């Protein structure tokens, strides 16, 4: 083509440029280096230049068009490969987290993405103030932080339903702890839940579901901790298992608080913080931004209304269990 350009001054034809694009696509599919191929184009340019030194401008213009067409085809093939890889990765993540594929086949596919499903794995889920996808800056930042610290440790970072997901070997809790720290910082205060390590491909699904349940529980209970672990919340599903019995307890123990001026919520929050502070009045008052005297007055009101003394160990367990049940059942917002 360059020989014809230098001899006649013609421009590259549409067919010649289309051929360059097709060759660029084929070169990418065959795994050739674009840099090496551009070097070969320039070598051909030098050869044509020597044969027609008076047509330098025409040759350079033709080279510019030819290399541009070649690179366009090369990049088009690369984009297609990336899209196919992303689609395969997304399909794998969906199958992994929902257990919708044959476990043997799933284990084979997992190796392609750095997981060895014969080992136990744990899953951490981060939920931020907005939804995130695989291309979000937050996702890239957290992934870069994990790779920089741990390298290739069979870690899978992904997104699902707007949340960040990290799957790591069950015996490498430091990975999930670092993920939680980075996700909390990068998402401006997200909450992270960590499921328990579980064996096999099905274990990833189980740990993921535990983490999601822990996130939901933490929200309903109003927990302030940025990182919650499913292993530390196992008592709550047990308490909520008999919903009718729990509802009866909440109505019986806390129902009288509806008669308080301002409604039951301030007194319910007082009990919640008081128990969370280890029944230490000074610490509970600090957390509620009250004086100790004001806190003591609230506790006395609770005692008068319910007949149960929060400071009495005999009554304390009933009240604390009822407070937990109220949060689990969304009382008093929801009628029981």
UniProtKB/TrEMBL annotation:
Residues 99-217 form the CdaR GGDEF-like domain. Residues 267-323 form the PucR C-terminal helix-turn-helix domain. Belongs to the CdaR family. This is PucR family transcriptional regulator. It comes from Streptomyces lasalocidi (Streptomyces lasaliensis).
